[in-house]
Task: structure prediction
Amino acid sequence: MADRYLSLTGTAPGRFLTRRLGLPQPAVLHRWSPDRPVLDGPVLHLTAGPSSLDLAPVLARTGLTVTTRRPEDTVGDPADGSARPAAVVLDATGIRDVDTLARVHAALHPVVRSVAPSGRIVVLGAPLDPADHHQSAAQQALEGFTRSLGKEIGGGRTVNLVRLTDAGAAGSTLRFLLSPRAAYVSGQVIDVLAAAGSAPQADAPRADPGRPLAGRTALVTGAARGIGAAVAETLARDGARVVVLDVPQAEQDARSLADRLGGTALTLDVTAADAGERIAAELPDELDVLVHNAGVTRDRRLVNMPAERWSSVLDVNLASVLRTTDALLAKGTLRPGGRIVATASIAGLAGNAGQTNYGASKAGIVGLVRSLAPRALAEHGVTVNAVAPGFIETRMTAAIPLFLREAGRRMNSLAQGGLPVDVAETTAWLADPASGAVNGQVVRVCGQSLLGA
Ligand code: NAD
Result:
């Protein structure tokens, strides 16, 4: 359903009126398209405190012109009257105490106003050092800083924090965040800390950088429509052979999408006890990417919720994900270097009235990801992460009554709903062979929703 308010604020009179009334000011976001695949402007590389990160090769692969400023240079507007930066990367990995935190302010205060609309600020932090509470305090402070700046910056700009130890291992993550593909990802803290040796695919330049999934097979559950269909399309765009899985009732849609993408359709109810076995039979040891997207809602307040509404949601959204994952890992269907991406929800993080069943199932996904990720990587070479969508414009959200729908759309830093493609782009980044150091993460695709942390 079209966001008419976003269209209104895109006109001069609409902007004037809504500003006078103090209403939200969503910006039209710059999303990836073949015509505009990169951000419109240079990336400014700043450093706050000492750093041993070698970011130059990584930033060179973003497709953006890079301007590097040392701490002593960061006085005044760094754009020097030239193009406004479309992105700023602040390397704050060397900050070890509260005094040096002032360098974050010194670096960003003069430039924040010059960041172009739909621009990006990415703060780089270090893992918290359990043996040093001063370092931990200063590094944790970056989280509150990032989330606060994300809430105030406006203009479709996003602010995220990446904790890393090795710039190369974080290459795919920085390329994603510094691109139009991450338009609806803001206020996130992403750890890229999996041991470099356990990341089976190095971040080496590829023959065809536009098709990182070439030669790989991806299976997406619930892919006949909505977010799942967008995921299948985006993975196919990135070169994957896709298997579009959905229930038998959705066979026609699943087949026509699979035909369009040059993939195959698999009609199957994921709650079937033998779902894992049937997928394994379809893809004997040739699966690289498994996206658990199928999900249902059966909303009712707990007081009115029959057991069947509870168990059906838990079965589709969580139990089937556990069963299928276990079966496919045990059978070795997922190849080393494989990727599992499960779908959580901000309802599982923040809770939502009328959704005790759904919230429980989606919080369960978070538990599954955090527990399984280290073992799946160590034992199978497979990473396990989750996307947690916020308000995404789909049939599901179009059915919400008008006022609740408007509240859901506006209650985030970007003041608008996301699109299925936003979840799909995030999934594609996690599925990238170069994302082997991203493991056990739950990444919200919610425009920095005001709900939950
Ligand atoms: P949707 O209802 O449009 O699509 C879900 C798909 O899953 C459908 O094609 C359906 O047939 C399929 N499916 C359902 N049960 C199945 C089963 N047992 N076996 C196989 N396939 C099954 O939903 P959507 O809005 O695209 O959501 C996709 C995922 O994203 C879900 O997990 C949902 O919980 C999650 N999510 C959505 C939003 C949102 O705003 N739309 C927000 C947070 C999380």
Remarks:
- The mean pLDDT is 93.
- The longest helix spans residues 307-331.
- The longest strand covers residues 334-343.
- The CA atoms of residues 56 and 416 lie 34 Å apart.
